[in-house]
Structures are given as C-alpha cells and as structure tokens.
Amino acid sequence: MGASHKIDGLTPAEACRRQVEMAAEHMDIEDWVVERLLVTNREVTVNIPVKMDNGELKIFKGYRVQHCDVRGPYKGGIRYHPDADLDEVRALAMLMTWKSAVVNIPFGGAKGGVQCNPKEMSEAELEAMTRRFTWDISSVIGPARDIPAPDVYTNPQVMAWIMDTYSIIMGQTEAGVVTGKPLELGGSLGRFEATGKGVYITALQAAEHLGIPVEGMRVAIQGCGNVGGVAARFFERAGCKVIALSDSGGAVYNSGGLDVESVLACKNQYACVMGPKVEGEDISNEELLELDCEVLAPSALGGVITHDNAAKLGAKIIAEGANAPTTPQADEILHDRGVFMVPDILANAGGVTVSYFEWVQNLQNLLWSEDEISQRLNHILKHAFNEVLAIAQEKKVDMRTAALNLGVSRAARALKLRGIYP
Ligand code: NAD
Predict the structure, then answer these.
(1) Is the CB of 195 inside a 6 Å radius of any atom of ligand 1?
(2) Where does residue 22 rank: exposed (0-12), middle (13-18), buried (19+ CB within 10 A)?
(3) Which of 54, 134, 302, 362 is most open to solvent, judged by the fewest CB atoms within 10 Å of its CB?
C-alpha cells in the first residue's frame, strides 16, 4: 500500500506535469522557465518513529515537498492517508503553486503527507506522530518559510499540535507557522468554511455564466468532510437541491434534495452518511459521479474522474473541491462534451485565500471580523473566476488550461524577475 498507482496511464505528478505542458502550448513562455517550474525545489522524506499504545514501535513515512517559492513562502496542507506517497505529495505541491498564483496570494506551493491510517489510531498516537513529524521537518517550515495547513484527515487539532511543537523548538509562540488552527490559538474566523464556501461561490459563478438558476439547482457532492460538508450547507442555504453526498463508505441520494444537516449529523454520530434519520437511498461513490445534475463537486480524493467514466457523467458543471479529481484524458472528453469545468486551482482556492488572511492576522497580531473575511474572500474568488473565464474566452481554451495559464504565467514572471542563482 502507498505507491502512487497510475490512473489513465499517469501517476499524479505525471498528470500535473502533463497539464502544465498542455497549458504552456497556449502561452508565451520560455522553455527554461517551464523546465524549472516542472520540478520541485526540495523533497523531504522522513521516517517517523511512534510508540503505539500497545508499547510497540511503529515507523511512518512522512513527506514535505516544496515546489516553488518565487512568489512567497511555501504553502500547502498536510494529509494523513494510507495512500499518501512522495509522487502524490509532489503533485499536490505543484498544484498549490498555481493555486496561490491564480488568486494572486503571495505564497508559493508545498504539500505534506504521512502514510498512515488515522481511523485506526488513537488520539495519543496521532499526537505523538504529529509532534515527531513536526520536529523532523522543523528546519524547513516556519512562518516565513513554509506554512502547513489541514488537508485530508487532518484538522485544527493537528494544526494546534504542529504549532505547539514548532513553538517549543523555537522558544516562543509562533502562531504563523500553520493555518487552519483553532480560533483560540490564532485561527481565523471563516477559515474552517473557506474551502467549501469557495467551491460554492465559484460554482455559482459558473451557473450564472451558463444562465442556470440557483433555486432548485441540483448538486451532487462526493465527500462530506471539511470541503464537501461545508459546500453542501452553502448550496442548501442558497436554495439548491443537494441530491447526493458521500463518504469513503458510500453515498446517499435523494432526487428531491437531501436534508444536509441530517446527513452530516448522521456522519458525525454513526461515521456514515446513511442512517435512520436520513431520507434517501444508498448508492455507490461511482454512481454519484454519474448522476444527472447541474453541479457535480468531487470533494474527496484525486483521480476519480477518468477516461472510463468521463463520458457517463451527467453534470453540466464540475466544481473541483478535491485536488486533481480529473485526469488529463477525462478533461479532454469533458471539454468535447461541453461540460463546464471549474478546476481545482480555482474552485478550492478559498482555503489558501483565508489561510493567507489567517497568516496576515497572526503576523500583525490583529483580528479581522467574519464580515471582513467573507467580503474579501468573495471579492478575490469572483475576480479570479472572471480572470480565468476571460482567458478561456480569449484563447478559446477550457477553464483548466485558462487557470493554468494564469497561475503558471504569474509564477513564471516572478521566476524570471528573480532569476537563477548564482
Ligand atoms: P476531510 O478529511 O475533511 O474529508 C475527506 C472526505 O472524503 C470525508 O468525507 C471522507 O469520508 C471522504 N472520502 C475519503 N475517501 C473517500 C473515497 N475513497 N470515496 C469517497 N469519499 C471519500 O478532507 P477535506 O479537507 O475535506 O479534503 C477533501 C479534498 O479537498 C482533498 O482532495 C483535499 O486535498 C482538498 N482540499 C482541501 C482543502 C482544505 O482546506 N481542507 C483545501 C483545498 C483542497
């Protein structure tokens, strides 16, 4: 378990590089710049020893990959998952560089991962693993260097342990070393909701562009964690029908619209989306992706929309809450079918945007109100959406190629201005 398998013939990092190469065909960009941006700056692999509750020692593989910092400190989440490996973390780090650039936030791109199954670990084991991992990567992270955040199966508590451990190493509290912290420790209002809210904001922009009314708009969401669960709440509140939601165990479907709160409460109580108080039928995660709907928001893991199912998808808009859910082959099929794509580096950029707000507040020791954060987030995402759409229309390319055009060209300009040392 753990080695990145190929989907549609490519590993995650190969797929990310392929996307950039394809976007570069529509850009005025020198070969050396592309060559530089296609490789990561630093890849740290550590073996994390943890004394488990039963007294045995277990060693976990941990990674922190720093792709590019020409536009600002490295930034990107840490994932705890049995399949996390270097190739996948490399791909996710690269996406972070383009994402920060698409929303014009002065950060670079990084990502971290620990190959573990947090569902089978106690709180004490998770804490020990997190603290030792932090110690192992402490020389390469920091508020001015590289700032981790939550990702799959990590949360504000994990960020609190990272912040505390790093602060102990430095001899002073360093709130700005991570974002997505609990509010009590310098977390930002609106950070927990930011990514899911961003998926909602950008999907609505797409619907408006296509002339699809929001009221009654059918939305299917894969995953109901920080991204999927929060997005579902926003869609429902706006009058959309959330017709399907899922977790790793399967999906629940109701063509008339689910009661989102009862699904999330069920997930909370029974660790599954289908329970006694949920009105809907069991379907599989694969069936969810193919549902007839206006918006599909894959918001769990990568590589789920492939050459095999792209032709069967029933959505008009795909808003990628997850990172890299669509393979390059599937992208071509969807584009040919006229499906409107809101790519990951735009759709889920609300997270890095409010992470930036959190970091700025930490560095300045001040607090912004929820309203201020909400307004700034709205403004940044709508502006980025319109910039990407304008490029797509001007160059007659799909939205992913347009978003990559924007992100890669901003990183490229910074790289050229800084030059190559020595
Ligand atoms: P999370 O741990 O909060 O939730 C993950 C969800 O995915 C859970 O509901 C889980 O049950 C579900 N899931 C796991 N395996 C699955 C499977 N095989 N099939 C279907 N569902 C499955 O994680 P998250 O923070 O919500 O992250 C979800 C995605 O969004 C990831 O791709 C992540 O990289 C991306 N993302 C997260 C953030 C953020 O701020 N948290 C920001 C940008 C992108």
Answers:
(1) yes
(2) middle
(3) 54
pTM as predicted? 0.98
- Ligand 1 mean position to 402 CA, how many Å? 25
Distance between CA atoms of 76 and 111, rounded to whole angstroms? 5
What span, in angstroms and rounded, lies between the C-alpha atoms of 249 and 353?
31
Kindly give the distance from the C-alpha atom of residue 199 to the centroid of ligand 1, in angstroms, as a whole number.
Answer: 13
What's CA 384's distance to the chain center, in Å? 16
Residues with catalytic annotation?
Answer: 111
- d(CA 345, CA 326) in angstroms, rounded, equals 12
Calculate how far, in angstroms, residue 344's C-alpha sits from the geometric centre of ligand 1.
13
Nearest to 158 by CA among 188, 193, 123: 123
Query: Ligand 1 pocket, 299 CB below 6 A?
Result: yes
Q: What are 27-49's pLDDT values in tens digits?
A: 999 999 999 999 999 999 999 99
Which amino acid, one-letter code, is at 418? R
Average pLDDT estimate for 368-397: 98
Number of Cβ within 10 Å of residue 29's Cβ equals 19
Q: Using alpha carbons, select from 162, 189, 163 the residue that is nearest to residue 175.
A: 163
In the block, tokens 């940044």 appear at: 380
How far apart are the C-alpha atoms of 237 and 253, rounded to whole Å? 18
Measured CA to CA, the distance from residue 201 to residue 290 in angstroms comes to 23
Domains and CATH numbers, the chain: 12-20+30-175 (3.40.50.10860), 194-347 (3.40.50.720)
Atom of ligand 1 nearest to the CA of 323: 32
Q: Does ligand 1 have an atom closer than 6 angstroms to the CB of 97?
A: no
- pLDDT of 4 > 80? The answer is no
- Residue type, position 379, single letter: H
